[in-house]
């Protein structure tokens, strides 16, 4: 492989790694209030009930 191909390969791999690290760094935990969590749980229970009825 020539120097040009090696340089392109290093830049491409570096770009992928940098993108992954950027996504990891910008990700933050999603916090729900107690009221929102209760709504999510009740909706989940409703969906599970509907799924069981369909089976």
What does this protein look like?
The chain has 55 residues and is an all-alpha fold. It has two helices and no strands. The longest helix is centred in the first third of the chain and has 24 residues. The model has no long low-confidence stretch (mean pLDDT 92).
TL;DR of this structure?
The protein has two helices and no strands. The protein has helices at 3-26, 34-54. It is 82% helix and 0% strand.
Comma- or semicolon-separated keywords:
2 helices, mainly alpha, 55 residues, single chain
Q: Strand-and-helix sequence, N→C?
A: HH
Strand content is under 5%
Mean pLDDT: 92
Low-confidence stretches: none
Q: Specify the overall morphology.
A: elongated
SSE-based structural type:
mainly alpha
Question: What share of residues is helical?
Answer: over 70%
Mind describing the biggest β-sheet?
none
How far the N terminus sits from the C terminus, by CA atoms, comes to 59 Å
Radius of gyration: 23 Å
- Distinct helical segment count: 2
Count of strand segments: 0
List the helices and strands and how they pair.
Blueprint: H1 3-26, H2 34-54
């Amino acid at each position: 492989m020539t120097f040009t191909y090696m340089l392109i390969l290093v830049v491409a791999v570096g770009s992928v790694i940098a993108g992954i690290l950027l996504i990891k760094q910008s990700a933050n935990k999603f916090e729900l209030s107690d009221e929102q969590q209760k709504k999510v749980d009740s909706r989940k229970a409703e969906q599970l009930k509907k799924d069981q009825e369909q089976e």
